[in-house]
Fold this sequence. Notes:
Elements: H1 13-25, E1 33-39, H2 45-65, E2 69-76, E3 80-83, H3 90-99, H4 109-122, E4 127-132, H5 139-152, E5 156-161, H6 165-178, E6 181-185, H7 190-218, H8 220-227
Parallel strand pairs: 1-2, 1-4, 4-5, 5-6
Antiparallel strand pairs: 2-3
Amino acid sequence: MTRDDRLPQRSSRGEVNAFLRRVATTPSTGGGRLLFALDATASREPTWDRASHLQAEMFQVAAALGGLAIQVAWYRGFLEFEASPWCTSSAPLLERMTAVRCAAGQTQVGRVLEYAIAEHGRGSVSALVFVGDCVEESPDPLYRSAGQLGLLGVPAFMFLEGGDPRATQVFTEVARLSGGAFSPFDAGSAAQLRALLTAVAVYASGGRKALEAHGQARGGQALRLLKQLGRR
């Protein structure tokens, strides 16, 4: 897999604010299920440990909320695609994630979207979170799947590591068609990514009221971000 050699652009405050406003206005069933999907191909290896640490924090926050089930899915290598069982505690998810190692291969964003559709058919999925750094597939099938997710009420929150222009365009459109949101991040915006992932987890669990309570309890960055959210 290739990467754009240019330096990634850091998420602007406006982009983060817009993302958080979208999180605040996304319908939530409460006590739901969050599907967390990851690109584990070779290009993400340099930042995999950092991503795993942020994921661990999100799992722990979600588990503390109660009522939110999380499933982790990832792709890598030659058409490898795996998913964990649905879990309500962080321990089994962390055990699985620490065992995953990146391997060279093509992106499978379409497979992630199709899997989310299938999982929703087996039991309602509140939201999909995807973290990746590029897209090597034709975008049209991705847009069709994203539109289907939108019809099903499953928003896709698309996080792009780095500033790949093609991936930016595709991730943005997938998020829009599904009713979700897009946000870029880089190594310098780990705190922003942590706040955004936590916001999605909290919101998927209990809607805006849960997110407000989380902001009040955590204070600091969480509270400042909460104050930026638009109201319905």
